[in-house]
Amino acid sequence: MREIKYMDAINEAMKEEMSRDETVYLIGEDVSQDIWGTSCDLFEMFGSERVRDTAISEAAIIGSAVGAAIAGYRPVVNTMFADFAMCGADELLHKAAKWRFTHGGKIRIPMVVRAPAGGYSRLGPEHSQCPESLFMRTPGLKIAMPSTPYDAKGLLKTAIRDNNPVIFLEHKNLMGHTGPVPEEEYLVPFGVADIKREGTDVTVVATGFMVSLAQEVAEVLQQDHDVSLEIVDPRTLEPLDLDTILASVRKTKHLVVVDEETSRCGPAAEIGMLVMENAFDYLDAPIKRVAAANYPIPGGYLEQFVLPQPQAMADAVAAVLGREKLDLQGKVVAKGAM
Amino acid sequence: MELSKELLIDLYTTMVRIRRCDEKVIECLFAGKLITFYHSCQGQEAPGTALGRSLRKDDYLYYNHRGHGLPKVLPKGMSPKTFIAEHYGRATGAAKGYAGFHNCDIEIGIPGMGGMVGGEATLAAGTALACKLRGKGQVTANMFGDGATGRGPFHEAMLMSATWKLPLIWCVENNRYQQWTCISLTHPKEDLADFAHGYGIPSAVVDGQDVIACYEALQPAIERARAGKGPTLLEFKTYRFRPHVEGFPDFSVQCEGGCRPEFEVEEWKKRDPIKLMEATLLEKGVLTEADIERIHREATEEMEEADRFSADSPWPDPKGLDQALYAD
Ligand SMILES: Cc1ncc(C[n+]2csc(CCOP(=O)(O)OP(=O)(O)O)c2C)c(N)n1
Ligand SMILES: [Mg+2]
User: Fold this and answer.
1) Whole-model pTM?
2) What value does the mean pLDDT take over residues B243-267?
3) In which domain, by residue range, is B74 found?
4) Which of A199, A292, B156, B275 sits at a 20 to 30 Å CA gap from B71?
5) Which atom of ligand 1 is nearest to the CA of B148?
6) What ipTM describes this predicted complex?
């Protein structure tokens, strides 16, 4: 199968869906360019009516998308940095998420907010967040977090066709990653987890960039320490495929949940609790989570002390297995996009 | 308005120091010494210089990302040492290395910067309210780019400041671009000073390449604020000489030719604020060629010293994270 970059997979999904359905349009600041490289030829192909560069007006970008979606369009917003979506918090967390419900389910809000997320580029607290917990605690939103080019394309196409608001957390650090993507059209359904690596000793649930780090960690643990990780990537946090997670936990009897979000009230807290409620009897050891420490993400040098690091994943694996330290010897490094 | 010889030299010297500092930061960025990215302010030295040199030490100044505040914070009194050290991510930096590009020195009225364009506007309104309530004649200034006027909070803060007659000087540096998008695509009018009409406050369009014009325009606005008569909106027409962010080309599929038109950049470069001021001062006989050469040399030395200071400074200690998070 051909291999393409994550950013190009996103571009293909945009192109295919914009060609297929004229109600789909892209809106945001400098979306005709996109600093993360996903736009390429979109402006050339679809012009300024459907690739809409705006003023720095996040509230109006997201709010207008809600309004257009109510009136039958399928807007795709790109917020450039996930952090900037907070400038349209009322529009996103109230209007997009709640208006259908508020009005007795009489309207549909088919829109996508693409939010390039993630840290490790030392850009400080307002350019580094991976804010999935903010969206997870907001019923009414769906949340996709692709970790591979294949998933990025398939999930984005599904997101655009979904009749609900979808937060699409594309990860900045994955943009240049390559992976197999078929030439033929395909969709990746929501609510179906993917086992990114089969293993026997510990289940690691991870999303987004954490999947690729966990895969590298798994490789070293296998080679150097003979520990076998099974990596489960939920791909969407809402809907969440709990069954696949539980099946893996029943098999390995150990669980580590990894996410890039702040530890307190993050996805790991939720997933860990769901496993407690549904598979406690299968666990041989308490669940461990690896997530960002409970601080804003500092810029610069201090970032590494707050964002989750590969060795912390290995430490968590060691802890659930009751093993001495499993040293990665610095073989896995979390690297940012910039 | 007749500006004193000392003031003219000071304005010129300040602009030269900003330029040298900006060049130094770019040099360090490409040498791999910077901890984050950089948005050069070359070409936009004049408005911030005039503002910073016009304010009292106990006045407040909110700035934006252009040069990560350099053309505003240096004139307000921040040392290039702490400025560069922050960009190096060192403990001696203007945010103790916690941000990498958000500089803060509350002792000289610099409360800091956020990551959201235009995010300072509402804070500026509150700081101006505090100035008014305290009654010591302090004022607050907020200098930001044309792009920030797209944000709702900017307009909310303008409305609040106008209604409550807050001692606030709104200063927009209109360089016609927000990142790669031209203002002609985002705003119905080029003159952003016109926003003032709706809020019923005075405004002016100022030549942002002419530091004397900038200084002269600021004085009545600051006096008005100090006298409790309310805010003013000043629009400085200016231009950035370098790309939006270093290391990225200045591309735009929306511009003919795929980037900012070359002739536009060249036209504006003819109006380099430092060169313009230099010509004025030579003509007035305020400075000689030898003075100018010395000012440039001293600025270069100052920035080299700041670079050495930064490189020799320690990394911030992660043990400080808790103390940074909550006050006692
Ligand atoms: C709320 C928000 N949206 C978008 C950005 C990304 N961004 C950073 S600088 C910039 C352009 C700002 O333009 P302007 O305010 O005119 O200042 P200039 O860069 O021209 O000096 C943009 C879009 C941001 N930092 N914050
Ligand atoms: Mg601008």
Assistant:
1) 0.97
2) 86
3) 5-312
4) B156
5) 15
6) 0.96
